[in-house]
Design goal:
By secondary structure, this protein is mostly helical. Helices cover about 75% and strands about 0% of the residues.
Length: about 220
Amino acid sequence: MARADSARLEGQYDIELSALHHARAADSTQVGPLWRLTRAYVELGELATEKSQKRKFYAAAMGHGQAAVIADSVSCIAYTWLSIAEGVSATVVGFKEQVRLSWQIREHALRAIELDPTSDIAYHVMARWHAEIASIGGLKRTMANLFFGDLPKASFEESIVYYQKAIALHDQVHHRLELAKVYLRMDEIDTAQQKLEYVLTMESEKRLDDKYKDEARLLLAHLP
């Protein structure tokens, strides 16, 4: 695990992935390699440009995430990354599967918060979940209720509360970007602009932060 973690710190993600697979092969019952593999494949999916690649990476993330919570049923970080894997997987599947995943994401993210109320990432997942569910339109929501089962209740206001909790615990680029996007969905353009501009002033700390800043720039460029 030390080799994988040090490789990640140095931005050597191929070495990190190889070391994680080696660690899992050596002992498949340890949660450490499993949740880290979940994270690695989520990130690979986020960086992929082809939908087929995204599906492949997200499917791998789901598999490792499910194995992680089996390996340790009281690991906050395992449940957190499983819920993230479920969330990104929902972006590349049909609506029926999205409805099914919506309940699982909520369950696993809330379980993560229950296990560790100081996990900013778990609060981020719940914030994102509220934003995505709340954005589903009336017709689509009616179709879901008729044919696939009820959607969970959610709101943009709850999303903001969860993002604010995440930021209070650990202020980072992704939290701020997604919070700005909630304000966009609420048509609060001035507030969203302020939040996006702030994102661009922040230091990049994580693998995807530069990608998130590029997204913020693109959103700013297309503001009405």
